[in-house]
Amino acid sequence: MNTIGIVFTAEFTRRIRSRAFLAGTVIGAAGILVLTLLPMLLGGMTSSASKKVVLVGDPTLTAQASKALARDFEVASTLPRLDQTPTAAFLDAHGKAAAVAVLTARPGGLHVTVYARDPSQFRESFGRDLATVQIGLALGVPAARVEASSKVPVDVHDVSGRFADAAAADAAKGVAYFFVILLYLAILLNAQAILTSVAEEKTNRIAELLVATLDPARLLAAKILASAATSFIQLGAWIATGIVVGRVAAAVLTHGGAATGGEPSLLGTVDVSSGEILAFLAFFALGFAQYGVLYAAAASLVNRTEDLGSVAGPLVIPVVIAFVLATIAMQVPNDPKIVVCSLIPLISPFVMFARVAVTNVPAWQLVVSLVLNAGGAVLLAWASGKIYRVGLLLYGRPPSLRQVIATLRA
Amino acid sequence: MGTLVLSNIARSFGDVVAVRDVSFTVAPGTTFGLLGPNGAGKTTMMRMILGILIPDRGVVSWDGAAVTLPVRRRFGYLPEERGLYGKLKVRDQISYFGRLHGVPAPEATKRADAWIERLGLGEYANRPCGELSKGNQQKVQIACAALHEPELLILDEPFSGLDPVNAETLHGVLRTLRDAGTTLILSSHQMWQIEDLCESFCVISGGMVRASGTLAELRAAWPTRIVEVEPVASQLRGVLDAMPGARRLPEADRPVLAYEIPADADTAALLRRLVAAGDVTRFERVDPSLHDIYLRAIGAAAA
User: Average pLDDT in the A243-254 region?
Assistant: First the structure.
């Protein structure tokens, strides 16, 4: 086995067996579990707690309103009139309803008075849902007819021919968003792993022994590969947890008749094409390599693990900027400024992937982006390798920016 | 086995000159002592031999050729500050460093077990290195450095912080390696710890060589000798005071006449004159110790 393989195996084994890795993986999976289930659970709570209403008024009117409100509410009961102003006890007595709506037909149209536990919730949704009843009263036609006439079929077609309909385009944005978050998480996780590993070897003076035996570039490559492998495993465990929990929860909610719980989670419905996966892998690898060498070089400059934050902090900024630009790219993927961003190393792994997911990127732009990113990765590896080699043996006061630049020129 | 040659090596760090112009040769299979005070440039020189640092000027060669990475993998290194993975078990640690030097995995494990046995680390073999005492960590470190049976083993302050028992264990290991033909380079502040191990020495200070050679050569180059005469008698003192170039030294804790005389002085003639002047119960010419030579060389550097 060559030295890269030996260092990779040792580094990977050490990391995968560490308590920090196991704890991080389990806690992360638990976090995914909570994040996946929470919307459904909260959705269920919302439905049961705030969607039941009691309608009061003329039976003909409440019958029409019941149909119109079915989109957003569950009508617990209807009453011809109120004997007194409703109280919380009254709502509890009527199926723990969230509100009572008193409907009155006036010459000017429908008037609704709502007595609610949470007054902030009902104005917009009632107004929207009961608009058909209002129009029906004004025109003297049944609300059901107004409802039927108000639906205008609209077909949206993608001029590039990529997406069959609007739903497919929306789904693509969801996929892009999902993978951009994955890339973001993977880079930050990997950064932490590399920072810790390099700083440990420097502060424990192991680096001196390693550099005496190994080419620092090979050492750096092995470390980045090992931390990438562990990050992938951790990420894989989290994604698998999200998918399994999302699908199981969605199935349980559907079969249990609790469809009011809302949509299955994003992770449970991801549908990814092989092209997108290839693009993700290509840009992921390039982004990963670029940030990996940068973080390793930064970690080699610190003398105490406590100082890692001060050198790592500034390197988080381009990751955050790239993430924000990627979310913008999902909305305006062909804006000239976004196109330029999708060619710039460090940023383009995020932005270009987002573009690939939501639009047809011209082949030349993909090629240019890949070439620039590969070149950028090589340049960063070269510069970081120089800093890493010198930084590993630099003890005492941290080097100034001038010294770092001098090292690069040497 | 190769010969290590350093020719006019120089290295600076910014404005600080660590090594100015150092040249020396280490013969194959010999043990070489690198002596000097803190900041003399010993570690920098060792790092340049190992290729960790690149000299600004000069050449390091092994067996007549440049020290490349494959050559460096045949070297071993024990740094002054111990470099061990705290959470890695002793056996795995030793085996890992052996593998980095090209020893196949099964053989590395076998040799690691042999070193663990040899150094009395059996009960710690499966414990993380971070849990070991400093002395035991030092033993692990020497096993890491020597497992691949290096042609050249460089040890930077190997006795630093060791208790007498562990120091003797390390002494034994180094003697065994020397007898097996390994070329050794040791640095130390403690002359007595390496005097009997090394065949030749180099004293450096301020990044320059101040003295070098075998102990016999260093003594031969010493400009003065010390003579000790008993009893303390005025007639004998008169003879010594009259000798050209002689300098009286402070008396030690027992009564003795101690004088520093030129190295080329005729001690036989001096003895004859002393005997003629009075009763002489003891006359001894004392050779300078390595410690004396070191202090003089360092003193010269300071001057």
Answer: 73
Q: Is B105 on the interface with A (CB under 8 A)?
A: yes
In the DSSP assignment, the letter for residue A263 is P
C-alpha A127, offset from chain centre: 33
Contact check, Cβ <8 Å, A1/B82:
no
- Interchain contact, A403 vs B85, CB within 8 Å: no
Shortest Cα–Cα distance, B82 to chain A (Å)? 7
Residue B218 to chain A, least CA–CA distance (Å): 32
DSSP β-ladder status, B65-66 and B57-62:
antiparallel
Q: What is the pLDDT of residues B203-254, one digit of tens each?
A: 998 889 999 999 889 988 888 888 999 998 999 999 999 999 898 887 766 7
Cα B267 to Cα A86, A100, B231, B264: the distances in Å are: 126, 125, 18, 9
Which of A12, A17, A206 is the best substitution to test chain B (most B C-beta atoms within 10 A)?
A: A206
Interchain CB distance below 8 Å, B83 and A7 = no
Indicate the domain borders of chain A.
2-43+164-409, 51-150
Which strand (E) or helix (H) includes residue A99? strand A99-106
Non-local CB neighbours of A175 within 8 Å, separated by 6+ positions: A270, A271, A272, A276, A357
Mutation target vs A (from B52, B95, B185; most A CBs, 10 A cutoff):
B52
Q: Kindly calculate the radius of gyration of chain A based on its CA atoms and give it in whole angstroms.
A: 29
Complex ipTM above 0.85?
no
- Please tell me which residue, A329 or A120, carries the higher pLDDT value: A329
Q: What percent of chain A has pLDDT over 90?
A: 13
Q: Given the structure tokens 């951790």, which residue do they identify?
A: A234
With contacts defined as CB-CB under 8 Å, which chain A residues touch B84?
204, 206
Residues of A in contact with B62 (CB under 8 A): none
Rounded to the nearest 5 degrees, what angle is found at the Cα of B208, between the Cα atoms of A395 and A389? Answer: 30
Q: Does A23 touch chain B (CB under 8 A)?
A: no
Whole-number Å distance between alpha carbons of B286 and B301: 24
Nearest to B297 by CA among B197, B219, B241: B219
Determine phi and psi for A149, rounding to 5 degrees: -75, -20
Contacts of B108 in chain A (CB under 8 A): none
The overall pTM is greater than 0.80: no
Residues A369, A342 contacting (CB under 8 angstroms) = yes
> A255: exposed, middle or buried (C-beta count within 10 Å: 0-12, 13-18, 19+)?
exposed
